[in-house]
Design a protein that fits this description.
Keywords: ATP-binding, Kinase, Nucleotide-binding, Transferase. The chain is an alpha+beta fold. It contains 12 helices and 16 strands.
């Protein structure tokens, strides 16, 4: 047998790690080494056969993940999503209900998914979790054919994201820019949506500028919402607000800080198994994990419980038992 054949056979015995990363992330280490090179070297040193998939454009992520899944059909290993929560969502959409676990290297602005799972934000520390961690199944929110790991919303929130992306392109991708941009949108006049909600079969007509669904318990806790417990139980956690003035909006923002948001008369909270939203519009803009998607109505919201395998720290797995 030739040396090349022996090497190929040895590589095939190794566990396969496929890294899915948006090239536009542009993250570098303090030593100016590109993150993807750092990760490839780290996993290689730990005995893995590493395949790197660098997407030139965000829409390439789906195709690359599908290619990686095909490679993993004959070999055990992990598909690693390296990027922000939007990248994680794209990879998770392909891995949903499958047997291939997803590893997470958080490279975004807020990194709610990683933080909720106690995955370190430093790339090499997160890589260590992928090498030494435990597989665990997590809940995933669903709206029609799409999933959300953090949240999905209609109305104001999609507008906030659109404005945030415009401001990010001007001022840079910083938390302060995102927060100030969102605040500016909230202070404008808003058109209310005329909707019909079916909450576990009970019809509730509503006029609202914002309906928000949260799946990430940590994010809901950051918003000081009691609905965090609802999400932890694998149910739909949602809030809707009525049409409000600028002063009422300021009051609601203050209530968020005080932890009394859900008690405001302008707020309706839902904890349900299924929610359907009907609208006269044939499709609606839905913000899904920070990305804007046009989704045909009616919108069907649900939770797929224990639907996605992820690699989490061993101590986090012990807490879940």
């Amino acid at each position: 047998m030739s040396q090349a054949s022996i090497q190929q056979q040895n590589d095939h015995r190794k566990k396969l790690i496929s890294i899915i990363m948006n090239k536009g992330s542009g993250h570098r280490t303090p030593e100016a080494e590109p993150i993807h090179e750092l990760l490839v070297n780290y996993f290689t040193k730990h005995g893995f056969d590493v395949q790197l998939h660098l997407a030139e454009q965000p829409h390439d992520l789906t195709r690359m993940t599908q290619k990686a899944v095909a490679q993993h059909q004959q070999r055990s290993g992990v598909i690693v999503a390296a990027g922000g929560d939007g990248t994680l969502n794209t990879v998770a959409q392909i891995l949903l209900h499958g047997s291939i676990p997803m590893g997470i290297i958080p490279l975004g602005t807020f990194n709610y998914v990683a933080r909720a799972l106690d995955i370190p934000l430093a790339p090499l520390d997160a890589a260590h979790v992928i090498v030494q961690g435990i597989q665990s199944a997590i809940h995933v929110g669903c709206v029609n054919q799409y999933i959300y790991l953090n949240n999905a919303s209609i109305g104001l929130y999609p507008r906030m994201i659109e404005q945030r992306e415009q401001d990010n392109s001007r001022f840079g991708r910083f938390r302060a820019v995102a927060m100030l941009s969102g605040f500016a949108v909230l202070m404008r006049e808003h058109q209310k949506l005329k909707l019909k909600l079916s909450v576990d079969g009970q019809i509730e007509p509503i006029e609202s500028p914002l309906v928000f669904f949260g799946n990430n318990q940590l994010q809901l806790q950051d918003f000081k919402l009691e609905l965090a417990e609802c999400a932890a139980q694998g149910k739909l956690a949602a809030v809707a607000i009525t049409e409000v003035t600028r002063f009422q909006m300021l009051t609601l923002i203050a209530r968020l800080q005080l932890g009394t948001f859900e008690q405001a008369p302008e707020v309706t909270a839902f904890c349900a198994e299924q929610i359907r939203i009907d609208s006269k519009a044939r499709q609606m803009k839905v913000a899904i994990d920070g990305e804007i998607i046009q989704v045909k109505t009616p919108l069907h919201f649900s939770v797929a419980q224990d639907a996605l395998l992820v690699i989490i720290p061993e101590h986090k797995a012990q807490l879940k038992k």
